[in-house]
Design a protein that fits this description.
226 residues, NADH Oxidase, 7 strands, globular, binds 3-iodo-tyrosine, Nitroreductase/BluB
């Protein structure tokens, strides 16, 4: 049992996180990089079902993210009902049609050409699950308004954990952000202080699917030593 003590009137527990010898720190950092470097955004999915427990574990992992004042300003809606997936697909495609035909600039559309995206989003029905991440601009407990802090940063970090957990399980996703996304609040019946942040289909990558032949920036392009 972890030791406990009171600091400034608040209970603290002794941190029992693992430490490793230096070689192991190195090998673990390499292994994790190798794992994450294989992650690709996937837009075609198998319809193969996945146990709900897997999704619970993935969402619990997202919930381990740090957040402003530990307010955990997130809600994860897990959708498996085909009727709701269809509603979401139809509404997303309606917005995307307008985006591609008139809202997005030529520069933007040119930048997306290498990725081969368009307004059609069959993955919103093919993937066995959709996760919609909501950010809570404030919290509510027993009718009381709870202040939240660094909401975008917190929910962004939690979404990163979510994507890493999906990949670690051998599953795939795409961070889909149809714009505007308020149809998700309506379909999922979310209160006005929650705003849709990301929409992620989750499933097995379609056997034989292709991904864009693109490269990641090299270490000397992203790391500056001081
Ligand atoms: N939301 C649109 C467009 C889109 C925008 C960006 I920036 C991307 O990296 C990918 C797609 C869509 O999902 O097609």
């Amino acid at each position: 049992m972890a030791k406990k003590k009171t600091i400034n009137g608040h209970m603290h527990v002794q941190y029992e996180g693992k430490k490793f010898p230096e070689e192991e720190v190195l090998s673990r950092s390499q292994e994790f990089y190798k794992l994450m470097d294989c992650r690709r955004t996937i837009r075609e999915f198998e319809r193969t079902p996945i146990p709900r427990e897997v999704l619970e574990n993935i969402i619990m992992t997202a919930g381990t993210a740090p957040s402003g004042a530990h307010k955990q300003p997130w809600t994860f809606c897990l959708i498996s009902d085909p009727k709701i997936k269809k509603k979401i697909r139809n509404a997303a495609e309606e917005e995307e049609k307008i985006s591609y035909s008139s809202r997005m600039s030529e520069t933007w559309k040119n930048d997306l050409k290498p990725l081969g995206t368009d307004w059609e989003k069959p993955f919103l029905e093919d993937a066995p699950y959709l996760i919609v991440v909501f950010k809570q601009s404030y919290g509510q407990e027993e009718g009381e308004k709870i202040q939240h802090y660094y909401v975008n940063e917190s929910v962004g970090i939690a979404s990163g954990f979510l994507i890493a957990a999906i990949h670690n399980a051998g599953l795939a996703t795409v961070t889909h952000t149809p714009s505007p996304m308020n149809f998700l609040s309506k379909i999922l019946n979310r209160p006005s202080h929650e705003k849709p942040f990301l929409l992620l289909p989750v499933g097995y990558a379609k056997e034989g699917t292709y991904v864009p032949d693109i490269e990641r920036k090299k270490i000397d392009e992203i790391l500056l030593d001081f």
